[in-house]
């Protein structure tokens, strides 16, 4: 808000200078009389010529042809030359000969513009002829109009192959082109725009394009943005209130008899699996918030679990050094894999649902669900993630995060922190990684930071701090609409929520009575996440408005 | 408790918890072997890992009055030694901020 008021006052100051020469009554005079100077600026610093032309265009597109004409006459600024108007109309009506004639009026670059524009127009002409089944004429266009341009030979070959299409429908499918009846001419016009100076032909719907950009920027800067409000008013800047963020405990799940160490939502968002130091795993229904199954079989604490891609199977592992595979529907233990000689700390399925990786203090194993060892690596792995597309495995151990290709199992890259890493979490798009680090442990015993890494560029984009981590693994994750938030557990019994983009701490949620060590955000409900704590409970968090929707809608204008 | 975040050491000889094999220190980092605990020989270190400290208390030892804290294994909570906070004798001041691990509670592992 502050910079805006500052801006306004400074432009006021600027505009006071020039306008002091000709009094305010003079302003309308200079607008109506004499030839307008296209370089005159508006009081806020925009080019008057440009602005008026956009207004004319906007009026026209809204159907106010008369007013548009009136504005052109009053301001003396024309939207475009008659030749350009004619050019546009001819393209939209498919009058290709006339279009070719008018091309010279468009001020095109003779090397980088004109031939390409010609090519695009003749390509459209060719496709339209083919669509109308005028095969011979199409062939003439191909041979004597497209080929001599010597542009994009590869495309010419492709176009030639369309000659083989059996029908208009077949052609449209092969060329992924929607035909004369569709929007193909409009699309062509937009594609030509990049060769034509915007001063000659104003890009279509320019004013509305800029308004959309403004609303998008406002949405991006809106801290609590949640995409619920799909309609934007142009009257005021867009802003969401806090109510879209899960900040209230909706349910407390307390069937575990010891600390809850790991929670994870099923991919369809209908169930939550929790692993506990009581050696059990509970699968909770998120409709009834009651346990559906309690999986008993581990002989020691359960440190992690992972849903298969189709949510029909669950892998669990822990301090008894085994990995167990369960059928979710029947709660039957299908297999126990005893390959690890240490505590198994992390698990992840490959997208094929037939292979999985498991990591321990010394090894990383790739296995099939039938128990075959497919590959092994010898380095410590504390935490794992697999990208959504299944191409990349992210494995963390010590101060190092390795990115391993799941196609050829080569190491793609490696990122390194200066201090030990306790947990990681990968974004849905696989481009960003949250890395929870212990920062300079000697000097600041509980000062911790989560780093947001851009994996492609190999750099830290943001840092989140404030939470407490001392002896235990405290997990973090992305969540919310468009994964706009970052949440983490904390040893001070709270859940921390930061804004991903600007790094600010939005909320700390109280409720648990002991350290919160695991958090998970629902993959399907942006207004729900869960936290697991050493107080033996899991809390499901939701938005306050779910309780009293009427009150809120009554308050909003 | 949560899942204990453990660090790992590499070296010829690593001293670990006799109970749960959690890493504490390397043999190379022993400052002195000439110490005695409740259960016999003990070693002095400037730093050990994967431990947490208990409450501070005053203890009278062979070498005088000291303020110390017990140190516990982060994984299994066994008391494995102590940390010197204050040594009241000028000659014993060098021990302040350093750690003692009792030999009988340790296990040697090579990595």
Structural topology:
The complex is a heterodimer of chains A (557) and B (111).
Chain A lengths: L1 H18 L6 H7 L15 H14 L3 H11 L6 H12 L2 H7 L11 H18 L3 H12 L6 H9 L6 H8 L8 H10 L12 H16 L26 E6 L6 E6 L5 E6 L3 E6 L5 E6 L5 E6 L5 E6 L4 E5 L4 E6 L6 E6 L5 E6 L3 E5 L4 E5 L5 E4 L5 E6 L2 E6 L5 E6 L4 E6 L5 E7 L8 E8 L4 E10 L7 E4 L5 E4 L6 E5 L5 E5 L6 E6 L7 E5 L4 E5 L6 H7 L2
Antiparallel strand pairs in A: 1-28, 2-3, 3-4, 4-5, 6-7, 7-8, 8-9, 10-11, 11-12, 12-13, 14-15, 15-16, 16-17, 18-19, 19-20, 20-21, 22-23, 23-24, 24-25, 26-27, 27-28
Helix pairs in contact in A: 3-4, 5-6, 5-11, 7-8, 7-11
Chain B lengths: L13 E4 L5 E4 L3 E8 L2 E6 L5 E11 L2 E10 L5 E9 L11 E4 L3 E4 L2
Antiparallel strand pairs in B: 1-2, 1-9, 3-4, 4-8, 5-6, 6-7, 7-8
The CATH level-2 architecture of chain B is identified as: Beta Complex
CATH class of chain B: Mainly Beta
Estimate the strand proportion of chain B. Answer: over 45%
How is the largest sheet of chain A built, in terms of strand order?
Answer: 1-28-27-26
**First-to-last CA distance of chain A:** 22 Å
Quaternary form: heterodimer
Name the pair of protein chains with the most residues at their interface, and give those residue counts: A-B, 21 and 10 residues
Please outline the major beta sheet of chain A: 4 strands, antiparallel
Order of H and E elements of chain B = EEEEEEEEE
Structural class of chain A: alpha+beta
Give the end-to-end Cα distance of chain B, rounded to a whole number of Å: 27 Å
Helix content of chain B: under 10%
Note the overall shape of chain A: elongated
Beta strands of chain B, count: 9
Structural class of chain B: mainly beta
How many helices of chain A in DSSP terms? Answer: 13
In round numbers, the mean pLDDT of chain B is: 89
Helix content of chain A: 25-40%
Low-confidence stretches of chain A: 1-34, 548-557
Number of domains of chain B: 1
